[in-house]
Amino acid sequence: MKEWLNKGEHWIWLSSAMVSISVVLVFGLMAMITYKGAVHFWPHAVYEFQVEQNGQTETVIGELRDSKSRDVTDMQTGEEKELTQSLIKVGNRDVYGIDFRWINNDTIKSSIETLSNDVLVIERYEYGSVFGHLVSAKIDGETVTDKSVLLELLEEQVGQSSETHEQIGYIEKHLIGAINYEIEELRFEEKKLRLDDAFTPEEEARLAAERAEFQSQFEAYQAETAVLYSKLNNFGEVTVEISNGQTLTVPIKKIVDFWRPNNMSFVDKLGFFGHSIGNFLFDDPREANTEGGIFPAMIGTITMVLLMTILVTPMGVIAAIYMREYAKDGPVLRTVRISINNLAGVPSIVFGIFGLGFFVYILGGSIDELFYGYALPNPTFGTPGLLWAALTMALLTLPVVIVSTEEGLSRIPRSLREGGLALGATKFETIMKIVLPMATPAIMTGLILAIARAAGEVAPLMLVGVVKLAPALPVDAIAPFVHLDRKFMHLGFHIYDVGFQSPNVEASQPLVYATSLLLVIIIVGLNLGAISIRNRLRERYKALD
C-alpha cells in the first residue's frame, strides 16, 4: 500500500474519479434541462376531477402538472399523517384569477386517471389557456350548436383570424415602422439644417414634400389596418363549458390556437410538438414574457455575441502580439500580465458598472455632442445599447483571448521567426505571414471560451443595453441594418425575468427550462462552429508544429 501511494497512482485514480463525477453532473444537468424544456411543447393530457370540499362536490378540469407529499398533524386527533397534493393547471385565469391550483388527493372522489373526453384547450393572446368542452359558436350572427361541424368551423375561423393578425403585425411593425423611422430621420435632418443655418426655403420645401409623401403612405396603411381590425371583430365567438357547468365566451379574434389533447394520436402529438417549437422560436413574447415565443431575445443574443467576437478578437490578438513579440521582459510586462490575470477574476457586475459609466455616459455622451447634437436632449449613443453591451462583454472576455493567444504564440518555434528574417522579411511581415497564422488555433480556443462566457452573462448586460421587452430588433431590413444604438433582448435576462420576476411562477417555470435549453443550444452551436474552424486550421499547420 505504501509503495502504491509513493508511486502517486492514487492521484491518478482520484483525478479520474473527479472527472467522471463532473461529466456525469454535466450530462445529468443537460438531460434534466432537455427533458423539462421539451415537455413544455408536448400536449399534456387533461383530466376531470370530482373534488369534495365542505360537503360540496365540484368538477375541476385541468392538466396534472406536479404532486408532492408531506407529513401533517391532524388538528382533531393530533396524529401525524401523510398528505398528498396535486398541482392542477386549471387555466381560465379571467374566471378563477389563477392558472394553477393545489388539490388534496384525499378530497378527490374520482380516479386521478380519469381523462376528460373531447376536452378543448384554447390558447389565447391574453388571460392564458381555456380548458372546457365546446358548446356553440356564433358566426355572422348565427349560433351553431351542431358538434359535427363546430370543430371544422372553429378551425377555419381561427386560421383566418391568425392570418389577419399576421397581416396587421406585418403592416404595423414593418411597413408603418419603416415610415415612422423615415419621418423621424426627416425631423432630425431639419434640426441639423437649422443648427447649421442651412435651412433654406428650398430645403424646407423638399422636406415638406417628402414628409407629405410619407404621411400619405402612413394614412393608407392606417386605413388598411382599420379594415383588418374590423374584419377581426366579425369573426364571432365560441362558448365553452368549463368546470361546474359554467360557460365562458371567447372571441375568436383572441384565440391563438386550439387542440384536443386527449383525442390526439401519437403522430398528431408529434406534429403538435414540432408546431409548438416553431411558434416558440419565431413568435414574439406575450403576457409579460410568460407566454408566446422568444424570437427577439434569440436574435439579440446572437447579434450581441457575434459583435462582441468581432470587437474582442483584434484587441486581444494585438495585445498578445505586443506582449510576446515586441515588449521587453521586465517588471512592467510582469505587472501587465498579473493585471490581466486579475482582470479575469473581477466580478462581471463591475464590468457592467464600468461600461455604464465610461462607454455610455462618457464615450456615448461625447459622441452625441460631436455627431448627434441635433438630436439632443434625446440621446443616441449616450444611452445603453447594443454597441456598449458588446464592448462591455469584449472587455469581460479580453483576458481569456489575450492569454490564449499569447500561449499559442509561445509555442511557435523560434527557428521559424529566424528563417523569415533570414529571407529578408521584416519582423512585422514575419509575424503576420508566418507566426500569426500558425497561432490561429490558439486564438480560436480563446474565442470559444469567450463566446461561452459572454452568451451566458446577465448582470452587466442589465446596465448597458438589455431590456425586458424591446420595441424593435437590433437587426432589420432598414439601413444600416445593424442598429448599434438600439436596446435589445437577451435570453439570459429573459430567463431571469421570467423565472424570478414573474408573479405567476408555476406558469413560467416550463418556459424557463425551454429558454435555458435554447440558450445552451445556441452556445453549443457557436462553439461547434468555432471548433470546426480551429480544427481545420490545426490540420493546415500540423506539419509545422
Fold topology:
Elements (H helix, E strand, L loop, with lengths): L1 H6 L1 H31 L6 E8 L2 E18 L6 E10 L3 H4 L3 E5 L15 E5 L4 E11 L2 E3 L2 H49 L5 H33 L3 E5 L5 E5 L3 E5 L6 H17 L2 E2 L4 E2 L2 H32 L4 H13 L4 H24 L14 H25 L3 H9 L4 H30 L4 H4 L26 H10 L4 H36 L5
Antiparallel strand pairs: 1-2, 2-3, 3-4, 5-6, 5-10, 6-7, 6-8, 8-9, 11-12
Helix pairs in contact: 2-15, 4-5, 7-10, 7-12, 9-10, 10-12, 11-12, 12-15, 14-15
Number of helices: 15
Biggest sheet architecture:
6 strands, antiparallel
CATH topology value of the domain at 302-490: MetI-like fold
- The oligomeric status of these chains comes to single chain
CATH level-4 homologous superfamily of the domain at 302-490: MetI-like
CATH class categorisation of the domain at 302-490: Mainly Alpha
Query: Could you state the order of secondary-structure elements as H and E?
Result: HHEEEHEEEEHHEEEHEEHHHHHHHHH
- Estimated radius of gyration: 31 Å
From the N-terminal CA to the C-terminal CA, the straight-line distance is 42 Å
What is the CATH-assigned architecture of the domain at 302-490?
A: Orthogonal Bundle
Taking pLDDT < 50 over at least 5 consecutive residues as the criterion, the unreliable ranges are none
- The fraction of residues in strands falls at 5-15%
* Sheet/helix structural class: alpha+beta
For the secondary structure, the number of strands is 12
Which word captures the global form? flat
Question: Helical content, roughly?
Answer: 55-70%
What does the average pLDDT come to? 86
